[in-house]
Amino acid sequence: LNAWLRYAPIQNAQAFQARLPTGLVALNTTSGSPVSTAARELTQGLGGIFGVRLAASAEPRGRNAVTVGTVAQFTDANPTVRIHIPELKEDGFHINVEGGSVRILGQNERGALYGAFHYLSLVAQGNVSDFSLTSNPQAPVRWVNQWDNTQDGGTHGSVERGYGGKSVFFWEGRIREDLTRAGQYARLLASIGINAVVVNNVNANATLLHPELMDSLARIANVFRPYGIQLGFSLNFAAPQLYGGLSTFDPLDKSVINFWQNVTDNLYARIPDMAGYLVKASSEGQPGPLTYNRTLADGANLFARTLQKYNGICVFRAFVYDHRNLNQTVDWKADRANAAVQFFNGLDNKFEPNVVVQIKYGPIDFQVREPVSPLFSHLRKTSTAVELQITQEYLGQQAHVVYLAPMWKELLDFDLRVDSKPSRLSDILNGSRFNTSISGYAGVVNVGMNTTWLGSHLAMSNLYAYGKFAWSAASDPKDILTEWIKLTFSDDADVLRVITEISMQSWPAYENYSGNLGIQTLADILLGHYGPNPGSQDGNPWGQWTRADADTIGMDRTVKNGTGNAGQYPSEIASMYENIETTPDNLLLWFHHVPYTQKLKSGKTVIQHFYDAHYNGSAVAQTFPKLWESLKGKIDKERYEHVLYRLVYQAGHSLVWRDSVNNFYLNKSSIPDEKGRVGNY
Ligand code: GCU
């Protein structure tokens, strides 16, 4: 339950005693304030790690004390003490350690709490030397989205694409009486710098607007507040009709506008610090402004305006497409990947300043490999956030280990070359590239009541890494992992080596056995997005296609002959993807339709690459259980067994992936595997 916040004793704790604080000065002791939470964590943390008992003290200048609070609180309490702190941004913090004298000061209370968690993380990793550091978040939006259902016809507390058990928030269409787990979740999130949680599914149910349920939502906000986490809320666009009894939900209709203002007023009366709304509209059958021929901006602004007097944000999702209009058989140029840019075309200067457009990292849907969504290069006057998915919907659903940080790093480092200038995705998201003010990060997390949170111990590195990337895109996936392993398991050299090896190999291995060369994850598209089913990847109404036939495969997304998607990118990138020679192999089939015999840059044919990659990827997964077994006795039995069970399963399932996919393409193409393996096992 405590994940990386175990505060387990470190080796040689005794040796450090002399350098540790013995007193604690909390600059705000009001119960429920983030600073008092920080004080509690420090007591608990230093107690657990070193066995020291911090004596609470009101003495502001205690020599051997850890002082925690905001910069303003510190100067108020110590008017004669001069401190020199580099500039702190909202939620930033400064830590200064000189022996047992530790000062943790935040720009605000939340920053102080982040600083306390950061300090504890360092000492838990054995770092007790003197240091001074300042850390500021790169972006103000560092949210997580839970896809928890509030009403789900019989299956109580379900979570859409949740693989870690029932909702920690909802049960039987109501908010849980006991919100202990919600509080523990908030604690974990605060420790990695997350500042808001949208608690209900983007496919939202309108009934949550019932006054009694709004009251209960406020209970969740109360549980979050001591951790500096704000509550966000998903809306159903048709609520004025479904819930409010109006005849319309047209965003320009006066009665609809009043309806939403009233909802917002009612929510803020109960939750004055609410973060804002998240809206999925006009997508996958959900209602939205397009129903009334209004623009997406009309839709987003409707909510944004109601939030302005409360400083709330309206996060509007760019995941907009109409699956009813997608027909592969008739239209070679139909392409779901084009939808977002088309729908947002011409809207860039139309959004209210408190709208953030939340864009999935790729143009389709959380696949194992996608190019960065071209929409990031089109919205230049609008704040944007990237939507990452910690819950591994298409990536093994936590039954497979897939450490996602290396994938995120590639995406965030990708340079879109807008106007032929450096335009890394991370610089768009931190606001620097286009001077946007409220950009950032959203992560779909979907934890549940399972004591592992996500259903798998090793999957928690993804949540940890998400927080680190949302704080700073300069983070390094391997360093994050090392930190996480030390905090979650131990700093034993073998433990570090084995978990690092498994995790760092896991994404490439999964890509190899589940769908490579940019073909997408070849999972079953109709039933749950799990397990191999390449046949389901064509002819489906969801627009996730491979266009595989007896001789050829791949989506032609070129301008000259295909869906034109390559042309949605800024010119340098567009010409790279337009041309088969300059398209990287790992996105070849995303952008081009080629014969199975097409030669890759490696010299192999597409089909042989498929065969080999599926063998290679599953061979890597076969090594995971053995590697893990070498840790027997070094990891507590419960976690050891839990992880081993899953790794054995993954090794087996990777063979199923390998053989189903390879056999499928052998049957389709009739081209045998050069090495004679496929079909002969
Ligand atoms: C995916 C996912 C859905 C989800 C949708 C979204 O398609 O499978 O469950 O509702 O994304 O992000 O809105």
Automatic annotation (TrEMBL):
<keyword id="KW-0119">Carbohydrate metabolism</keyword>
<protein>
    <recommendedName>
        <fullName>Alpha-glucuronidase</fullName>
        <ecNumber>3.2.1.139</ecNumber>
    </recommendedName>
</protein>
<comment type="function">
    <text>Alpha-glucuronidase involved in the hydrolysis of xylan, a major structural heterogeneous polysaccharide found in plant biomass representing the second most abundant polysaccharide in the biosphere, after cellulose. Releases 4-O-methylglucuronic acid from xylan.</text>
</comment>
<feature type="active site" description="Proton acceptor">
    <location>
        <position position="393"/>
    </location>
</feature>
<feature type="domain" description="Glycosyl hydrolase family 67 catalytic">
    <location>
        <begin position="127"/>
        <end position="453"/>
    </location>
</feature>
<dbReference type="GO" id="GO:0045493">
    <property type="term" value="P:xylan catabolic process"/>
</dbReference>
<feature type="active site" description="Proton acceptor">
    <location>
        <position position="365"/>
    </location>
</feature>
<keyword id="KW-0326">Glycosidase</keyword>
<keyword id="KW-0732">Signal</keyword>
<keyword id="KW-0624">Polysaccharide degradation</keyword>
<feature type="active site" description="Proton donor">
    <location>
        <position position="284"/>
    </location>
</feature>
<feature type="domain" description="Glycosyl hydrolase family 67 C-terminal">
    <location>
        <begin position="455"/>
        <end position="677"/>
    </location>
</feature>
<feature type="domain" description="Alpha glucuronidase N-terminal">
    <location>
        <begin position="3"/>
        <end position="119"/>
    </location>
</feature>
<dbReference type="GO" id="GO:0005576">
    <property type="term" value="C:extracellular region"/>
</dbReference>
<keyword id="KW-0378">Hydrolase</keyword>
<keyword id="KW-0858">Xylan degradation</keyword>
<comment type="similarity">
    <text>Belongs to the glycosyl hydrolase 67 family.</text>
</comment>
<dbReference type="GO" id="GO:0046559">
    <property type="term" value="F:alpha-glucuronidase activity"/>
</dbReference>
